[in-house]
Design a protein that fits this description.
Two copies of one chain form a homodimer. Chain A is 43% helix and 10% strand. The first copy, chain A, is built from eleven helices and six strands. The first copy, chain A, starts with 11 loop residues before the first strand and ends with a helix.
Chain lengths: 239, 239
Amino acid sequence: MLVEAPILGLRALFFDVFGTLVDWRSSVAREAERILKPLGYNLDWAAFADAWRAEYQPGMEEVRAGRIPFSKLDVLHRRNLERFAPRFGLSLSSDVLHELTLAWHRLDAWPEVPAALARLKTKYLIAPVSNGNISLMVDLARRNGLPWDAILGAEVAGDYKPKPRVYTAACEAFDLAPAQCMMVAAHSSDLAAAAACGLRAGHIARPDEHGPGTGERAPKVAVDVAGRDLADLADKLGC
Amino acid sequence: MLVEAPILGLRALFFDVFGTLVDWRSSVAREAERILKPLGYNLDWAAFADAWRAEYQPGMEEVRAGRIPFSKLDVLHRRNLERFAPRFGLSLSSDVLHELTLAWHRLDAWPEVPAALARLKTKYLIAPVSNGNISLMVDLARRNGLPWDAILGAEVAGDYKPKPRVYTAACEAFDLAPAQCMMVAAHSSDLAAAAACGLRAGHIARPDEHGPGTGERAPKVAVDVAGRDLADLADKLGC
């Protein structure tokens, strides 16, 4: 039996990635331990991941505000790492800093994500619209089996979310009007920015994103659909 | 038994698409007949496809020379169609012109391509580096089962091959040096331009691209590898 998509005219789904599709916190903590423990460091690895992530928005704000030219997220991650690493007593070679920066290319998807994306792809065009760069997205796709139609997002747009250009560039790449596209994210701020550009909004709960009980259990803004996870969202979109 | 890749350090393969991976001539002829015959037109459909393709390089040259801003290939295909259609006695509505322009989204791959690409993907990152726009590439990938890691090429670079920026932007998107990347094409001019940027070159014979016996049977420039078709190239790259 064919189930009609409940949102008329919806053609493409754009996905936030960090937090929404992949568990950056556990993965970065694991990678940091793998790389740094053999060098004699013994840190609170989750705190290390949190400290790195805390530099994320300020780093991108340099680009959004036009103070530095667009630089891909790998470059910002490396710069941010060098900024906060001394607080953890780390003194690392350039090679180790590079290897550590690539931790963000080795993040694991939340368990239901690959199968749910494959279901959603049967009915919709699917692409990441993340602040992560293209090579990072490709590595995550290969690692986790994410069957993207294309890699869109910050590097293609030349700016960082929540700047409107990132959302509108994604719609234009697929030759679609904003109302034919839905941004899917676990972060209300991302959805609000997409909705301001005319896109639909789909929320996923990720209550443990920054550790148990820290993430959004429900959207804080009006959305078109909200799911307990991506499988639930796929159910609600008729896939 | 693992076969070592014969080209040291090669990490990514970039593909020309029109002619190299898909048979644009038969497909456009078929689509034109499907759309125009019911309107009472009876043309030499292959000649119609050839006439459209003849406008291809002059159309892109407007962008390459900086006379018009970058416009995606769909826009140029539409403009080119309106330019030569009167020569075939066609007087078409805007809707029909639009539908006809989308013929280029419905091209069929040469028969060995999908399976050969899947083999190549086990060892290399793979992406189209075509002058076709992102939505066109996505439609061809869905139609033919082309398992791209990412869609690169003209729209991402903001210019058209053979301008160097298109090749170097693709390498940069994958964080690779040009020597770690190979351009694969059935056209020596494309390979020469890529090689001038430091990329490796892989040639595929498509002797029937513009009709029987019209295409390149062998490269006219020095290349790193040449295949009878994409399956043969995959064999030669140890996949």
